Amino acid sequence: xxxxxxxxxxxxxxxxxxxxxxxxxxxxxxxxxxxxxxxxxxxxxxxxxxxxxxxxxxxxxxxxxxxxxxxxxxxxxxxxxxxxxxxxxxxxxxxxxxxxxxxxxxxxxxxxxxxxxxxxxxxxxxxxxxxxxxxxxxxxxxxxxxxxxxxxxxxxxxxxxxxxxxxxxxxxxxxxxxxxxxxxxxxxxxxxxxxxxxxxxxxxxxxxxxxxxxxxxxxxxxxxxxxxxxxxxxxxxxxxxxxxxxxxxxxxxxxxxxxxxxxxxxxxxxxxxxxxxxxxxxxxxxxxxxxxxxxxxxxxxxxxxxxxxxxxxxxxxxxxxxxxxxxxxxxxxxxxxxxxxxxxxxxxxxxxxxxxxxxxxxxxxxxxxxxxxxxxxxxxxxxxxxxxx
Length: 389
Prior knowledge:
The protein contains 15 helices and 2 strands. The N terminus is likely disordered. Helix 3 packs antiparallel against helix 4 and helix 13 runs antiparallel to helix 14.
C-alpha cells in the first residue's frame, strides 16, 4: 500500500549491489554522457592530428590520450554512481581538502605552460589542474553546510558557505582563472537560491561580482585584454575567435564534410577550448544542435528527478552539480560564437584534457548517485499532506 501511495520502488531484501544500482540508475542521463564521450573521440580524430604533427607526435597521439583519460573518467563516474549519498559526501570532503591544499601550493610549485595563468602541476607525462577537482567537491561541501543550517540547532552553514566561496573565488581570480571562479560562484548561488536565500542577499552578491569585475579589469592585464577583445566591434581574423567564427560560418547546416575542415590547422586549441568550431565546420549545425540537446537533456532530466527528493542535502548538491555542468558547456559554446568573453574552459566530455575529463566523470557520477530512485515519499506528497493537517 505504501508503494501505491508514494510511487516508490520497493526495497528488495538482500538484492545484490550491482543489480540494485542498475535498476535505480538514471539510464537516460548515462546514455547521453556516453554519446557525448563518443562525439568527443570523433571530433578528436579530426582536431588533434594537426597539433600532434606540430609537436612531433604520431597523428593520433592526443586521441589515444583522450581515450585513456576518458576511460578513466567513465570508470570514476560509474564507481561514484554506485556509492550512497553519505559516502559521496565523505569522499567529497576529503577531496575538497586535498584540492584546496593543491590550490594553495600552485603559486609555489605550479606552472602556466606559457598561457599566463598558473593553474597546473606538471607531472612530466601529464598535468593536473586542481580547480577542476575542486568544483564538484566544493559543491558537495557547500550543500552539506547549507543543509545543516536548516536543522534545528544546526550551525550557521549558509554564512560558512559564503565565506568559503569568497575565499575560493579570490584564490582562483589571483591565478588568474576567472572562468573557474565564475563557475564556483554560480554553483554556490544556485544552491543558495534553492535553499531559500533572501533576494536582497543575491542582489548584493551580484553587486559584489560587478565591483570585482571592474577591479579586475583595472588591475589585471590578462582580464582586460579578454574583455577588450570581446567588446571590440572589429574581430581580428588571425585570432582564435576569428578562426572559430569563420569555421562556424563555413560549416553551414550540414558541414563541409568529414576531414575537410581547415580550422584545425590554424587553431592551437582546436581540440580543447574551441572543439565546437571543428564540429560546426565539418559536421555543421546538425551536430552542434545535437550536442546542445544532450547537455540540455542531462540538466533538465536531473533537475526533474531531484524535484522528488526529500533530503535537502541531496537536493541542493544535485542541483549545484547539474547546473554547473550545464553552465560550463554553455560558457564554452558561448565563447566560440562570441557571445561571451574568452574563458579558457573545456566542453565537458567532448574537449581534450585529462583533469577536465576525470573531474567531469566524478561530478556526473555524483549526480547519478544523487538522482538514483530511492524508496521514499516524494516531497510534493509530503507538502500536500502537511497542508491537510
